[in-house]
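pls design
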């Protein structure tokens, strides 16, 4: 059985799978689990890392310099074996590097470093993508954590909401057969808030590409809630399978290819074209709040 990497501090305990550098557990000091359990009958993930694409591309193929390469949904990282690079009591780091095997699907010399750190009541997830190729490297990156819904001691699922830090006036996007629907839909955000209900996800994920916010609160007016921040990730998705016990809060750089897209990966909307010897850092911070401990804030 694969041994999990465990980090902890006085407030939180996290477990990470070295196989995919995937966060599989985040518990409070009094034992409340905050992560989805990865039930394979519902959704086998818990918090996959998405690289070098986010979402899907037509026929699971990308075009690079005129040649086709096969890349499944969310790319290589969700199926990759990372190397453990560091383990400290409250911090761990993992690395995924290019190899002859990865070049069959993605012909670039890359390095992806993923780090998890616990500081006070927060989990900091950071990732650095480095281009060690001699050519410009097109890529996307995303976090995909699935948190329990309902949260511990937070009442019914119907009492939960997502509240954004700023007014959001743009529309939202939806998938169509795994790709990006061409239509812009009326946003589910009203007065900075989405009241969560299963029917919102009947048509798949809700995606937001023009957010003013870089922070949201997920929870209800009682029990545990999560304050979630992100950096360098301009796109956001909220997703669950209707009726399932999780909500994925997914900050992305990039998204599925639009319906009808046939261009090069470097031309795909949402792609970062990283120069040789350059790198890009991404970050997501999850802070655990408790209405009892915080005086009902």
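designed seq:
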């Amino acid at each position: 059985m694969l041994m999990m990497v465990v980090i902890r501090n006085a407030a939180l305990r996290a477990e990470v799978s070295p196989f995919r550098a995937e966060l599989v557990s985040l518990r409070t000091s009094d034992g409340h689990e905050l992560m989805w359990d990865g039930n394979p009958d519902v959704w086998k993930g818990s918090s996959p890392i998405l690289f070098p694409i986010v979402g899907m591309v037509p026929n699971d193929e990308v075009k690079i310099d005129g040649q086709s390469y096969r890349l499944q949904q969310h790319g290589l990282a969700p199926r990759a074996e990372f190397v453990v690079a560091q383990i400290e009591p409250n911090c761990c780091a993992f690395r995924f590097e290019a190899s002859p095997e990865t070049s069959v699907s993605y012909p670039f010399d890359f390095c992806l470093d993923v780090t998890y750190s616990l500081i006070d009541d927060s989990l900091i997830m950071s990732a650095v993508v480095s281009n060690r190729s001699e050519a410009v490297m097109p890529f996307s990156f995303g976090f995909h954590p699935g948190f329990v819904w309902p949260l511990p001691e937070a009442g019914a699922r119907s009492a939960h909401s997502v509240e954004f830090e700023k007014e959001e006036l743009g529309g939202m996007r939806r998938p169509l057969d795994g790709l990006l629907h061409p239509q812009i839909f009326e946003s589910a955000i009203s007065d900075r808030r989405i009241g969560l209900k299963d029917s919102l996800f009947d048509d798949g994920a809700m995606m937001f590409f023009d957010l003013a916010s870089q922070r949201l609160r997920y929870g209800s007016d009682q029990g545990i809630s999560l304050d979630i921040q992100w950096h360098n990730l301009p796109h956001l998705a909220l997703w669950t399978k209707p009726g399932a016990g999780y909500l994925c809060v997914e900050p992305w750089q990039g998204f599925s290819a639009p319906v009808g897209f046939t261009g090069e990966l470097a031309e795909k909307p949402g792609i970062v074209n990283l120069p040789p010897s350059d790198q890009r850092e991404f970050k997501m911070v999850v802070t655990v709040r408790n209405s009892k401990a915080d005086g009902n804030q």
